């Protein structure tokens, strides 16, 4: 059975509108994103940022769904990489060399054992970001996780290391330096082609849902089987059966009414009781329709032909 209402059509048409922002709207999202991340023009290549989509859209008064699709088109045009709600563990990397780090440890004895623990636990942290588990460090140093995070942030403030806390927020990475809007080129042809394909699919869905033809026959006709019989099981076939049955019941009740009133005039109560077909509701509805059509008459008390 197909569950479909007019509100479904309106919702799909709204989704279509939001799925394909205008080129000017895509450029505007890119411009807002540069401002949100505080990137200067010509800077930012390779940099990644957490993107709180709700905050971003609220700040610049833009629609979240349209913004999400604008980001996908920007990704397709190689201006950025966008990852939705992916879990990234905590990472860190030393920002100074071995000698400078050793000097820092001597001058800041309070951080010495903490830094030594990092060095012993995580190799390669001078060259690349490495994953870190704050809980493991806390256990080794007999500290709380909050204390470990606080020390990492303090070392970051002193430019000793770079610390990226774990996150499950969407991530945006600028795959090229930020461009001004004059140099942001969006593939308009691709956008229009995708829009046309989506529109054709959407109209096909509407046709399928709104055409009162056997669903199975429609699908088989699409698969080059135009002469398939009605399935008898879909919502359209079942509705046709219901109407056919209702028409048959109406005809039978009509005949009984005529037969009864041909013999004698009857009150509505007696007439309804004398009919054997259908429910009381079916009988009253048929009597009403016959009266409206002028096939039977009433003097206010009894019915007659």
What does this entry look like structurally?
The chain is mainly alpha-helical and 305 residues long. The protein folds into 3 domains: 18-87 and 170-190, Arc Repressor Mutant, subunit A (Orthogonal Bundle), CATH 1.10.10; 91-164, Arc Repressor Mutant, subunit A (Orthogonal Bundle), CATH 1.10.10; 235-304, Orthogonal Bundle (Arc Repressor Mutant, subunit A). The chain contains 13 helices and 8 strands. The chain has helices at residues 6-19, 23-36, 53-60, 64-76, 98-107, 109-121, 134-141, 145-157, 188-210, 215-222, 235-263, 268-274, 280-292; strands at residues 48-50, 80-83, 91-94, 130-131, 161-164, 171-174, 297-298, 303-304. The protein has a 3-stranded antiparallel β-sheet with strand order 1-6-2. The protein has a 3-stranded antiparallel β-sheet with strand order 4-3-5. It has a two-stranded antiparallel ribbon with strand order 7-8. Strand 7 (297-298) and strand 8 (303-304) form a beta hairpin. Helix 5 runs antiparallel to helix 6 (109-121) and helix 11 (235-263) crosses helix 13 (280-292). The model has no long low-confidence stretch (mean pLDDT 90).
Radius of gyration: 37 Å
The helix content, as a percent range, equals 55-70%
Distance between the termini: 43 Å
- The ordered string of helix (H) and strand (E) elements is HHEHHEEHHEHHEEHHHHHEE
């Amino acid at each position: 059975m197909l569950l479909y209402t007019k509100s479904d059509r309106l919702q799909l048409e709204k989704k279509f509108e939001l799925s394909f922002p205008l080129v000017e709207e895509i450029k505007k999202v890119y411009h807002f994103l540069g401002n949100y991340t505080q990137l200067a023009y010509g800077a930012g290549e390779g940099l990644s940022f957490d993107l709180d989509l709700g905050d971003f859209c609220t700040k610049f008064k833009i629609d979240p769904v349209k913004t999400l699709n604008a980001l996908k088109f920007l990704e397709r045009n190689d201006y950025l990489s966008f990852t939705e709600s992916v879990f990234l563990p905590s990472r860190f990397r030393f920002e100074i060399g071995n000698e400078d780090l050793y000097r820092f440890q001597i001058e800041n004895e309070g951080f010495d054992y903490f830094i030594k623990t990092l060095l012993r636990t995580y190799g390669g942290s001078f060259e690349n970001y490495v994953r870190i588990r704050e809980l493991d460090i806390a256990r080794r140093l007999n500290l709380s996780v909050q204390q470990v995070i606080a020390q990492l942030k303090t070392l970051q403030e002193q430019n000793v290391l770079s610390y990226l806390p774990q996150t499950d927020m969407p991530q945006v990475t600028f795959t090229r330096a930020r461009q001004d809007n004059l140099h942001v080129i969006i593939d308009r042809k691709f956008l229009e082609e995708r829009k046309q394909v989506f529109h054709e699919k959407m109209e096909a869905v509407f046709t399928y849902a709104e055409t009162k033809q056997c669903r199975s026959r429609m699908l088989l006709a699409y698969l080059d089987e135009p002469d398939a019989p009605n399935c008898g099981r879909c919502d359209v076939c079942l509705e046709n059966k219901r109407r056919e049955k209702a028409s048959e019941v109406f005809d039978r009740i009509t005949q009984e009414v005529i037969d009864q009133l041909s013999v004698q005039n009857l009150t509505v109560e007696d007439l309804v009781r004398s009919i054997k077909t259908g429910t009381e509701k079916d009988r009253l509805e048929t009597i009403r329709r016959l009266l409206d059509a002028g096939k039977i008459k009433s003097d206010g008390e009894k019915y007659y032909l």
